[in-house]
Amino acid sequence: MIFYPYELAPYVSETIWGGRRLIDEYGIVTEKANAAEGWMLSCHESGLCSIVNGELKGKTLREVYLEHPEICGKNAAKFDDFPILIKFIDARDDLSIQVHPTADYCEKTGRGQSKTECWYVLDTLPGACLILGFKEKIGSDEFRRLIEEGRLTDAVKKYDVKKGDFFFIESGTLHAICKGVLLAEVQESSNTTYRVFDYNRAGKDGKPRELHIDDAVAVTNCEPYSPSQYCKDKTESLFNCEKRVFAECPLFNVAQLKINGDYQGNAGENSFVSLLVLEGEGALKTGDAGVTLKKGASVFIPAGTGGYTVSGNLNILETTI
After folding, report:
1. Do residues 320 and 273 touch, judged by C-beta distance below 8 A?
2. What is the pLDDT of residues 86-136, one digit of tens each?
3. C-alpha dihedral, 73 to 257 to 177 to 320, nearest 10°
4. What is the predicted pLDDT for the residue at 202?
5. Are 208 and 198 in contact (CB under 8 A)?
6. How confident is the model at residue 250 (pLDDT cuts 50, 70, 90)?
7. Are strands 231-238 and 194-197 parallel, antiparallel or unpaired?
8. Tell me: the pLDDT tens digits for 137-170?
9. What is the pLDDT of residue 208?
10. How would you classify residue 246: left for phi > 0, otherwise alpha for psi between -120 and 50, otherwise beta?
């Protein structure tokens, strides 16, 4: 039986900038010193999720996907592999200023994987911000000169952020998550990052972390950030649920579900449903299968599973394709 809700255990990434809020507040289990990232839905070989319930317990989600690609649904036919990756990110310190490649650049160079992503801000500390794009349009030569002269931070645009903010970051957009930001990220299933500036920090080995200047200059859109055409921010009132649609794009659809009571959902033939619990507690039931929901839980409902019921008082990030 493959058509039941999979409760997922995440891959946990420890970094020099990561904090422990995912461990202390979201129930992420790890023996690592910190949990900078929890890969809550991942078939990427750099960090695999495993299934912890039902007949498939002990298997990685990727193992099941390779045996049964139909769990993704008909909309996945346009993708070469499992299409998305969902993370929690806890920035105790600033992340590097970076950029992800476009599909065209990956095809041209024959390496890497494009990465468009979006962020939902879970919490912030006072003064927290994000870096997105530039203050004004510049040329690629000036971009390189700013990097070489150590003046890049003078040209980037910083955005103050608060809980509940949403940002859509298309590939080619210069960006950084700054210290004090806790967020959920939905992205293409990619681990390709071109690091541009890392505040002259040393890595675990005591050496400066690698930069990727040539690639970054080649792919970066050197303009001010503007909201994507794929951002919707529309609210629908459903029975016992307020649904706020954040983004609808060819790669993924992202919405927030605020549930109070019993909510009826459906995992049809076209797409799986990913439910990431941001707050609250409750339960999910479909057929004879059930999963307890609590803050930090990640559940993957295969396409074709059909109707399901979520009960409780919950704030959930829902992702489909």
Report:
1. yes
2. 999 999 999 999 999 999 999 999 999 999 999 999 999 999 999 999 999
3. 10
4. 77
5. yes
6. very high
7. unpaired
8. 999 999 999 999 999 999 999 999 999 999 999 9
9. 84
10. alpha
Active site residue ranges: 195
Residue 319 three-state SS: strand
DSSP string, 199-213: TT-B-TTSSBPP--H
- 295 and 25 Cβ atoms separated by less than 8 Å: yes
Site of tokens 């040539």: 214
Q: How far apart are the first and last CA of the chain?
A: 23
pLDDT score, position 227: 86
DSSP string computed for 6-28: EEEEPEEE--TTB-SHHHHTT--
Tallying the residues shown for the chain, one arrives at 321
Q: DSSP H helical segments within 110-250, as ranges?
A: 140-148, 152-155, 213-219
Strands 166-169 and 156-160: unpaired
Average pLDDT in the chain: 96
**10 Å Cβ neighbour count for 25?**
14
Give the pair of three-digit tokens for residue 187: 């992205």
Assigned token pair, 44: 């990427």
At 139, give phi and psi (nearest 5°): -90, 165
Q: Where are the beta strands (DSSP E) in the chain?
A: 6-9, 11-13, 37-41, 50-51, 84-91, 97-99, 117-124, 129-134, 156-160, 166-169, 175-177, 181-188, 194-197, 231-238, 241-248, 253-267, 273-286, 289-294, 298-301, 306-320
* Cα angle: 80, vertex 86, 88; to 5 degrees: 155
Global pTM value: 0.96
C-beta separation of 40 from 86 below 8 A: yes
Q: Where are the alpha helices (DSSP H) in the chain?
A: 21-24, 61-67, 103-109, 140-148, 152-155, 213-219
